Amino acid sequence: MRLSTSAQARGLARRRAAVGATAALLGLGLALGSGLGTAASAADASTYNGIILGVGANETQRIVTWYTSADTAQKVQVAPTSAIVNGEFPADAITFDAVGGANIATSGGFNRHATITNLKENTAYSYRVGSEGNWSTAYAFKTQDFEGNYDFLFFGDPQIGSSGDTLKDQAGWEETLKVATGANPNAELLVSGGDHVETANNETMWTSFLAPDQLRQYPLVATIGNHDVGGKAYEQHHFTPNTDRSAPYYNGDPSTRSGGDYWFIYKDVLFIDLNSNSYANPSDGSLGGDAAHVAYVTDVINKHGSEAKWKVLVYHHSIYSPATHATDGDNVQRRKDFTTAFSELGVDLVLQGHDHSYSRSYSIKNGQKENPAEQPGAAEVFPGPGGVIYVTANSASGSKYYDIKKPNPTDTNPHGNGPDPLNPDSYWYNSVQNQEHVRSYVKVQVQADKLVLENLRSGTCAAPNAAVEKGLSCTNTPEGQPIGSIVDKVTVHPYHGNGQDIQVNVPTAAPGEFGWTIDGYNGLVDLGTAQEHNGQYFEATGTINPILVSDSRRTLAPWSISASVSDFRDGDKTIAGSYLGWTPQVVQAGAGAEAGAAVLSAYDDQGKGLSVARGLGAADQGHPKGTAKLGADLDLKFPNEVDKGSYRATLTITALSS
């Protein structure tokens, strides 16, 4: 059998990391105050508002966007927070030039954005926008380790102004961000499901959306919703990395449309964000709508998929949701257009908004439930190749909720809305559906060999909850379902085929603890973090997942199991496979099994280690029938010149018998 792995390739000038790194993530702490100083005396008449911290192309970047009253040359100024004295930036603070233009169809003024680059890991930074003598208030953010596990938070439809009371909606949105970041201060991204405002060009609504200071402290991954189109305000407030704003990814009047498709990589997750407002495929067969999005996703994954271990798509219109929009014709169309392509491209998770209710799909492959036996609400899911989990987020502000609809028992369309045979009150595609008329958000934990998703309550029936305050019923009970309680939790395990993926993390300098992880299935063999010895070499040891050999043949012919390993790779960085050695063992005797010979790491004997085929176990002619279990202790030892990173290799196992 062949043990498959992801051989990492580097397409960005950045230090890549594994989601399984064991280095601790430092908290954001007090550096995340609302402001570190006041604006300096104005040398000109410029004023600044709408400052927002956006995600960059990778962990080393942030994009800052803002509005200004004057069309002047402006910058972002950045310095380590530790260098700020009495609110004053040091003389050597770095600046990044801003670009932008006049606001279109809004309240006037100008928009600016600038990209902060070359950030260092585990560093608190302060930044401000403007020009010499006329700076904005300063804000702070903190980078964390550029390698390893991390959490991001996903928010559905704030849609400020939807309730008819912008300030009530703002209060709910602010409270959700306060609750979410308070409970998860080390979260590294805030991801939007779209519909930031009710009316695209209403700057009063945008001001309320941008009011929470968390949007200046944590990078936001912006997504455009159907209420954000029809005006340029979305683009003016959110400048996104690697964005294609050409016609196939838009719809509507070219002078007012916003959106585009974009992508970025953050700590071993490839994020692709789509403008799902453009979905109709042109009747003349030209590239546009869903077909254009599929082509875009295909191109990005073909070019950059090998640089990450997870693939996450984000767009607004939920194609597997439980409420008002579940039966919309455009979403039924997207089920036909998107799902097979997403399965074939190896997408792991799709995050959506639009339906103002929460749902988590079954593992969906090619538009159908992958495993008919997967149970509703399963706490652990094991998608096979092509299995995709789709999540719809509920309202993060409480401005509007949609109630769950009953499935149509006569609907037999494979892309339709028939009932789940295991739970007839739910649609066939949803494992979990929930609507209590309380605010919530989704936490995603990216770990070495799993994604852990939680839908968490960020409110109760009590204010701020604009829709309920205006008369909507509420089924939540604060005593039993308080703020922070879990609505749904699932662990998603990736598919490793019939093989074993081996991973080792290399620290910067300090030794670390490492070990193997076996989750009751053929999961990643994680060596953890290699330990440095005397400043000369790194070493990591562990054990392969046991190989079960069963022989009941009458001939009792000899058999052998051998294996070889590829080079360990993280992007364009490598550790030679020859540095991996092993000591085979017969874990469970049977079938005449004898363990193969020990093989030293090339670091010890300058040999070839496991880079060439080596025997794990064998049996001679005439051996007894039975079953044997073979294992091996691994010893990875390599020079300390290797760069920090998370390296994976493929162990290929071959069985031979007469």
TrEMBL record:
Protein keywords: Signal
UniProt-listed InterPro entries: Calcineurin-like_PHP, Metallo-depent_PP-like, PAPs_N, Purple_acid_Pase-like_N, TAT_signal
Domain Calcineurin-like phosphoesterase: 152-358
One GO MF term attached to the UniProt entry: metal ion binding
Region (Disordered): 400-424
Pfam families xrefs: Metallophos, Pur_ac_phosph_N
Domain Purple acid phosphatase N-terminal per the UniProt entry, residue ranges: 50-143
Name of the featured protein: Metallophosphoesterase family protein
Species of the source: Micromonospora costi
